[in-house]
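Hi everyone,

Forwarding the result from last night's run.
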Amino acid sequence: MAGASAAAMAVGGRGVWAQSAAVVNAGLVRTPLGALRGEVIEGVRVFRGVPFAEAPVGKLRFRPPVKVKAWGAERNATTFAKAAMQDGDKEFAQSEDCLYLNVWTPENAVGLPVFVWIHGGGFTGGESFAPLFDGTEFAKAGVIVVTVAYRLGVLGFMDMGPLLGAEYAGSGNNALRDLICSLEWVQENISAFGGDAKRVTVGGESAGAKLTDILMGVPEAQGLFAQMISESGGAERVLRKASAEAVAKGFGEVWGKDVAGLKTASAEELIAAQVKFVEGWPLHFPLRPEVDGGMLRRLPVEAIAAGSARGTRLLIGTNREESAMFIGPHPVHDATAEELGNVSLERFDAVYARYKALYPGMSEEWLRIRAVTAEEYWVPSVRVAEAQVKGGGKAWMYRLDFAPTSGRYKGDAHHGEDLGLVWDKPNLKIANAAEEAALARPVHAAWVAFIKGEAPGAEGLPVWPEYSLERRETMVLDVVSKVEVRPMEAELRLWDGVI
């Protein structure tokens, strides 16, 4: 009773009970699938571990997701579900039963826009419930947040058709199907949380951004969202059908046992084989969606340019030194073929040979960081923005130049630096923490404005112009932000015909 008011104490605690009951009731929502019991924190209703598909286990392994059936009794939604199966030592529990989402919504919400977030992790890792992706700040600003999970690695991104037969053909796109299933759940259920199904923005960072960009070119996904946010993405991370078949056969060789056992082996066995396979495969990120002639009928960037996302709005951008997180002076290892996700080493080296002439005063390691950043993130993102405009959509582009002045990434606007700004959770451990916090406020506000259907913008930022093919207007986010026209044009031209 330590937190009770004097008035509540005077009536034998009944005031406290009334307050608690109100909180409990505020945490109840009735969806078409059944009632959910969440909780209320700081005026925001939070619902965790909400299923959107049946568990993809047993006979449903390597199969398209099946929409979740209605549940009978009231369902507890106060605990996050387990993350998808993945490699590496993780601090969180994992399960093949992973198709759940989480919702943050203001109390008394009515007709609010919705932000559906896809986490990153290289298609093999990550989770929807990372503390950084807590949607409280967005909800306080009038945006409903939904963070979604999807199958990872061989369970979500490998075409098992070559190993298990034609009935499993195209299973390399099951993770995309998971995301579409979650977006269908949003369309059918979000009004119960106070959301407007016609005002859905889908977005993500890194692999989540790439999946967002790829979804723009998937016919089955059209109509499930009206806007997209892509942070460090690109639509190039897909396999042609022949490559997907080669990947499957290569995995089968690593598996080394009766391939029929893939259907019944433990998830841990599959992940162990996946780790061994990825380590030995010459292509970086061998587990990725595929152009299968069904779900993906052509390269996503081609579909976007042809109008697959016509009438939608896109906010897209990258960080200046994305690849400093993985290579170079911090050192993890040098850039080799294993760092390249979109082109072969031979094609990369042909472009890289021209970087010294373009940047004569730059050191070898920084040239490498610059070129790999372009290959992995910047140029693919520019191509998506170009395709979006060509295809009849609208786009706004940014580049994050803000960098920490201390720590491992001192001086680098590295991969992931944008996340703390967008989610208004700035890094307080760096020397220039005050500057990061000051930038987080307008960046977060600009994302909120975009999600609400406005042009991205906020007090503290210059007017953010729409992206055009002629001028390539780009907002440069920094301590003092500015708009650049045709930024790094000479470098971009090096990649013409390559990406």
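Confidence is low (pLDDT under 50) at residues 1-24, 331-335.

Cheers,
N.
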